[in-house]
Design a protein that fits this description.
- Helix content is 0%, strand content 57%.
- The chain has no helices and eleven strands.
- The strands form two sheets. Strands 2, 4, 5, 6, 9, 10 and 11 form a seven-stranded mixed β-sheet that branches. Strands 1-3-8-7 form a four-stranded antiparallel β-sheet, with no helix packed on it.
- It is elongated, with a radius of gyration of 14 Å.
- The mean pLDDT is 95.
């Protein structure tokens, strides 16, 4: 019932920048949380950044380089990635924690993933 559409992935050289965006659409009562995960080959999916709390949360590996922002009116979350490193190469997944009604439990929804490749 919630669809997430991502954009902004691509190929960039080390030290470059990319901006990702993810827009949620569909029928839902509320979105409690939005953010980004990533999964590199041979590794588990890991949280990159979340905008759910009063302060954004970042994985230590991206602090100072990535910035997450959220436009609640547009149900959109963004991830600005600066000073990219080859180890940032992964498929990046947008997520939204949403509930269809106020009395239902929130469920995580996922975008299709967008490939970010950083060359050395």
């Amino acid at each position: 019932q919630v669809q997430l559409v991502e954009s902004g992935g691509g190929l960039v050289q080390a030290g470059g920048s990319l901006g990702l965006s993810c827009a949620a659409s569909g029928r839902f009562f509320s979105i409690d949380d939005m953010g980004w995960y990533r999964q590199a080959p041979g590794k588990q999916r890991e949280l990159v950044a979340a905008a759910s709390g009063g302060r954004p949360n970042y994985d230590d590996s991206v602090k100072g380089r990535f910035t997450i922002s959220r436009d609640n009116a547009k149900n959109t979350v963004y991830l600005q990635m600066n000073s990219l490193k080859p180890e940032d190469t992964a498929v990046y997944y947008c997520y939204a924690k949403a509930r269809s009604h106020y009395f239902t439990a929130a469920v995580n929804y996922w975008g299709q993933g967008t490939q970010v490749t950083v060359s050395s």
